[in-house]
Fold DUF4250 domain-containing protein.
Amino acid sequence: MNLSKFESMDPIMLMSIVNMKIRDDFQDLDELVKFYDIDRQKLIDKLASAGFEYLPEAKQFR
């Protein structure tokens, strides 16, 4: 799944996809945003608008 259009995605679906990608394909959020060339803060803000917070120690949004 291409995350380049994450800003228009449903935040719950986005959270699920991002967590799956970090778990299966990347070491952490920084590696994911670099690979997809997306703005890290915009992604965090989009998910925060739905009540999700990135937990670096868990390497996932909750």
